[in-house]
Design brief:
Elements (H helix, E strand, L loop, with lengths): L1 H17 L9 H34 L2 H4 L3 H22 L4 H25 L3 H27 L10 H24 L4 H5 L2 H20 L1 H12 L9 H22 L4 H16 L6 H17 L3 H4 L12 H18 L7 E6 L4 E10 L2 E10 L2 E10 L10 E5 L19 E2 L4 H6 E5 L1 H7 L2 H10 L3 E5 L3 E6 L13 H5 L9 H15 L8 H9 L11 H4 L23
Antiparallel strand pairs: 1-2, 2-3, 3-4, 4-9, 5-7, 5-8, 6-7, 8-9
């Protein structure tokens, strides 16, 4: 992006604006500037081709692409690489009409595959809509090129005003995409993003500079707009249209700055993609404009699936729960686990409050000679995630031996549940009810080992979210309520929100946890040795026994942790 910004500033703006009229006495400083601009003119597209090649290599080298049925990413990368090959040829050889049309066609194929991959991979409909709208001006451009190539190639002048009409449609589509970009791409929640001063000041500064330049140096402003973006606004454009263009430019500036300063890495990655598409502009006279558009759209498509997992607005999918009601529910779950567990085994519980009103509640005990951890993530009082680990905790990026992902009519919430860890290939049990209820990937032998007929029936009846098994390590079950999963199962959120203590029983969740334990007991887990048990009892006050997510679990001296069980037994208490 930095190279593209430098190419725009130096080659398209400074060199063209400062070029001396007298070619006999060219200053040395301009020659240097001209050579730098020429270097960037060629280096930027070569760098973009390198990005596309590296992206294809990165996708092919990771097996989780296949396990997650994301073949559309490979298809998109292959089509983009074919487009990069055509663009490279157009850079090296002066393109004729055939090469130019082939470049335009490959460009559109790369755009379509990138947009399809991004839309299908995300549950964020606003980001998906923004991706389609951002690609629409590029599709409009090709519509004009295709018609012109087909109808005017013989010189019959079938539709002489076609270029002007296409330019008009493209301008309108660009304005629409820019004006709605804050709603589609801004960090969530949008209300919080709107009051941030830095993006607002940047947008107002751009609008003020543009308005001042239009008023004082109207021809210069039109020339800068044409060199930077490729739009020929013309000298007779009405004042209201100019105001609309300035507002669109300000909205796009606000979106890019807001994304660039977001706390979410995926949102910043998306902002880079939007900026690259904007830097490419609408003047397709050189392969760089094509390449920047494709790289930018691919960056957006890669970032959109990760947005919901990284931003606080995921909590808005469930209503907030009063702290006292939530502590009472956790206490009931602790009591249920104690009653179902072996005698004398402690059940420890701790809640830690971190930044941005995040709270993590962790219940730890032992089952089947393995560590059992139950973790609840809340943001602003709303339950975001339920996480159960039996055995050793494993990173979700590690390829799993077996994964199960629930699906079917019971997924009433809008959107898609975050996918399980990578595993391959897809497997089936032959049990129709189970196979309809779950998509299974990984080792078929492990599937039959972990789930016999009775466990498959129990899982099909009560299990939501996804379950993953790593041989030699452990089993993990994870659920995101309200995100492609029910709101009231197995945690009765409706009763908790309404503070109906009688209906907010923890027995349903305790039963699901017992099912996860029963499945894990049939597998190869990281068992606890006597030394491990001694160390855990000696250091029960260490928060690192819980899943290590510093952004959620980081507590400060000013924000003391609170016990979720208001009256645990003395032997079960954790000192924090």
């Amino acid at each position: 992006m930095l190279v593209a910004v430098a190419e725009l500033a130096i080659n398209r703006l400074l060199v063209e604006s400062l070029r001396p009229q007298d070619t006999d006495g060219v200053p040395i400083w301009f020659e240097v500037l001209d050579y730098v601009g020429l270097f960037l003119h060629y280096f930027a597209p070569v760098l973009a081709v390198g990005v596309l090649v590296a992206r294809l290599i990165d996708i092919v080298r990771h097996p989780e692409v296949m396990s997650r049925s994301r073949l559309r990413l490979i298809a998109s990368a292959v089509v983009s690489l074919g487009f990069a090959a055509v663009a490279t040829y157009a850079i090296v050889v002066a393109p004729g009409d055939t090469t130019s049309f082939a470049l335009e066609t490959a460009f559109q194929a790369a755009i379509v595959t990138a947009v399809v991959a991004g839309v299908l991979a995300t549950s964020d409909m606003r980001a998906a809509t923004g991706l389609v709208l951002l690609a629409s001006p590029l599709l409009v451009h090709y519509f004009g090129v295709a018609l012109q190539h087909q109808l005017v190639s013989d010189g019959n002048g079938f539709d002489s005003d076609l270029p002007e009409r296409v330019q008009r449609w493209g301008t309108v589509s660009v304005c629409i995409a820019a004006m709605v970009s804050p709603y589609c791409f801004a960090p969530r929640p949008l209300v919080r993003s709107l009051v941030r001063p830095a993006p607002l000041l940047a947008a107002l500064m751009v609008i003020a500079m543009g308005a001042t330049l239009l008023r004082l140096q109207y021809p210069t402003a039109l020339a800068i707009a044409k060199r930077a973006t490729g739009f020929d606004l013309g000298t007779g454009a009405p004042a209201d249209e100019m105001a609309l263009y300035l507002l669109a430019l300000g909205a796009l500036t606000w979106t890019i700055v807001s994304c660039a300063s977001a706390t979410s890495p995926a949102r910043r990655h998306l902002g880079v993609g939007v900026a690259l598409v904007a830097l490419g502009g609408y003047a397709f006279a050189w392969p760089l404009a094509f390449l920047l558009g494709v790289v930018g759209l691919l960056a957006i498509a890669d970032a959109t699936p990760q947005l919901a997992d990284e931003e606080d607005d995921a909590a808005a999918r469930t209503p907030p729960i009063d702290d006292a009601t939530w502590q009472a529910y956790v206490s009931g779950l602790v009591a249920a686990l104690r009653a179902r567990g072996p005698d004398g085994v402690p059940v420890n519980v701790v809640s830690v409050r971190g930044e941005h009103d995040r709270q993590s509640t962790v219940i730890a005990t032992e089952r089947e000679d393995a560590t059992l951890r139950v973790r609840f993530e809340r943001v602003g009082g709303a339950l975001v995630c339920v996480d159960v680990v039996c055995g050793r905790e494993v990173s979700e990026d590690k390829v799993a031996t077996l994964t199960l992902a629930a699906r079917g009519d019971r997924w009433m919430a809008p959107g898609a549940h975050p996918p399980p860890p990578p595993a391959a290939p897809a497997v089936r049990t032959g049990d129709e009810a189970f196979d309809v209820r779950f998509t299974s990937h990984g080792d078929g032998v492990a599937l039959y080992k972990l789930l016999d007929e009775s466990l498959r029936a129990r899982a099909a009846a009560v299990l939501e979210g996804w379950l993953a098994y790593w041989a030699g390590d452990g089993v993990r079950w994870r659920l995101f309520p309200g995100r492609g999963a029910p709101l009231d199962h197995p945690v009765p959120l409706g009763d908790l929100v309404l503070r109906r203590a009688g209906g907010a029983s923890a027995e349903r969740l305790a039963g699901v946890i017992e099912l996860v334990i029963a499945i894990a007991a049939r597998g190869d887990l990281a068992r606890r040795s006597s030394d491990d048990a001694h160390d855990d009892h000696a250091h029960d006050d260490h928060v690192h026994d819980a899943p290590a997510e510093p952004a959620v679990l980081a507590a400060t001296a000013a924000t003391p942790a609170t016990l979720a069980d208001p009256a645990p037994a003395a032997s079960d208490r954790e000192d924090v």
